[in-house]
Design brief:
By secondary structure, the chain is of the alpha+beta class. The chain has 3 helices and 5 strands, in the order βαβααβββ. About 20% of the residues lie in helices and about 25% in strands. It has a single domain, classed as Roll (Ubiquitin-like (UB roll)). The protein starts with a strand and ends in a 7-residue tail after the last strand.
């Protein structure tokens, strides 16, 4: 089963769980099955701009790629804003 790892901030929204073992055909399927899918995808079903996805250490924008059973998917929420 593939493993999806959440950062602490998203894990807090998922009831404190940071690691999910999932059986999914694609990265998108795996992310959609998470209890925090609404924080990853917008109302139109698109990945939110400040959510970055890494599969086996490589960033991907294509969420429809096949997900190997031994894959590690890591979600990284980008930080934006601040002052100059």
């Amino acid at each position: 089963m593939a493993v999806v790892l959440l950062p602490s901030l998203l894990a807090a929204e998922a009831g404190g769980q940071k690691r999910f073992e999932l059986d999914a055909a694609t990265v998108r399927d795996a992310l959609r099955s998470l209890p925090i899918a609404n924080l990853i995808f917008d109302e139109a079903g698109e990945r939110r701009p400040l959510v970055n996805i890494f599969v086996n250490g490589a960033e991907t924008r294509d969420l429809d790629i096949p997900l190997a059973p031994d894959a590690e998917v890591r979600i990284v929420a980008a930080i934006a804003g601040g002052r100059r």
